[in-house]
């Protein structure tokens, strides 16, 4: 049987981290963690580097956090990599951000395959350059049968647009008789969203001290626990993720009820 612990190269993980992981795994682990990876630009500015250097460093953190999330038996990790609003950034920065999935997957896809990670994407593919979508499509194809962590990239994603599109599809299906208006429930509606088939996030993390959602998963985050940190994304470590999960484990989730 596939044993995830075999593939941890010893040098990759300190014994302190392993002990902390073991402790954390004694309590329920969030099934779905969503992250707004913020602060790349400020990280670079602090070092007098171009903003893209921050994005590049941020990409390395994606690798680290994917590995540990998979080890922790998190089922889904959704990462906000590019929003529908991010097109407003300078052209050179947008071009660089569009190259990152290619670079990331070009370098780490073999590792993701080895680690049984399944790559998915949510967002509007139409707006993305062909080189970006072909890298993502290749990763989706080559990992489609993997059964470990689902690494879900939100790329050219915007939640309001997602909801509007879902409403339009619901209307179309009602018109064509596939769906009866009286049968629309939250569960049915959720099937029309880009997260179809995925559980809602249990934990949302946003780095860099900003306390807002920025048009991210507005429907899906209805009952999610939020954890904000001042740490900039390129400085985010495995220990920060464990800290967020520990806080999550100490929260009482009531889903609107009493306890
Ligand atoms: C927000 O920081 C970050 C982004 C818009 C891009 C996030 C992308 C990555 C972390 C790399 C993605 C990697 C892959 C594999 C696709 P910001 O630029 O807004 O930072 P600032 O608020 O400090 O300016």
Automatic annotation (TrEMBL):
Keywords: Magnesium, Metal-binding, Transferase. Its EC number is 2.5.1.-. This is Isoprenyl transferase. Catalyzes the condensation of isopentenyl diphosphate (IPP) with allylic pyrophosphates generating different type of terpenoids. Substrate binds at residues 39-43, 51, 55, 83-85, 87, 89, 206, 212-214. Binds 2 magnesium ions per subunit. PANTHER family: DEHYDRODOLICHYL DIPHOSPHATE SYNTHASE 2 (PTHR10291:SF0), DEHYDRODOLICHYL DIPHOSPHATE SYNTHASE FAMILY MEMBER (PTHR10291). One of its GO terms (cellular component) is cytosol. It comes from the Bacteria. Mg(2+) binds at residues 38, 225. Homodimer. Its cofactor is Mg(2+). The keyword Transcription regulation does not apply. Belongs to the UPP synthase family.
């Amino acid at each position: 049987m596939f044993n995830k612990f075999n593939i941890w190269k010893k040098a990759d993980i300190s014994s302190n981290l392993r002990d902390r992981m073991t402790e954390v795994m004694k309590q329920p682990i969030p099934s779905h963690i969503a992250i707004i990876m913020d602060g790349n630009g400020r990280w670079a500015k602090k070092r007098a580097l171009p903003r893209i250097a921050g994005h590049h460093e941020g990409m390395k953190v994606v690798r680290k956090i994917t590995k540990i999330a998979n080890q922790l038996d998190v089922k889904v990790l959704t990462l906000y990599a590019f929003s529908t609003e991010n097109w407003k950034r300078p052209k050179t920065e947008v071009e660089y951000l569009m190259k990152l999935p290619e670079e990331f997957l070009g370098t780490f896809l073999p590792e993701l395959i080895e680690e049984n990670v399944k790559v998915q994407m949510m967002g509007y593919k139409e707006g993305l350059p062909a080189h970006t979508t072909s890298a993502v499509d290749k990763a989706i194809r080559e990992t489609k049968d993997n059964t470990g962590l689902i690494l879900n990239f939100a790329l050219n994603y915007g939640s309001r647009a997602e909801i509007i599109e879902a409403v339009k599809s619901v209307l179309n299906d009602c018109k064509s008789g596939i769906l009866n208006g009286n049968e629309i429930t939250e569960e049915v509606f959720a099937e029309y969203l880009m997260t179809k088939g995925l559980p809602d996030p249990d934990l949302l993390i946003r780095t860099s001290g900003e306390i807002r959602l920025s048009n991210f998963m507005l429907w899906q985050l209805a009952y999610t626990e939020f954890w904000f940190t001042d740490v900039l994304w390129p400085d985010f470590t495995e220990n920060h993720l464990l800290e967020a999960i520990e806080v999550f484990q100490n929260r009482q989730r009531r889903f609107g009820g009493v306890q």
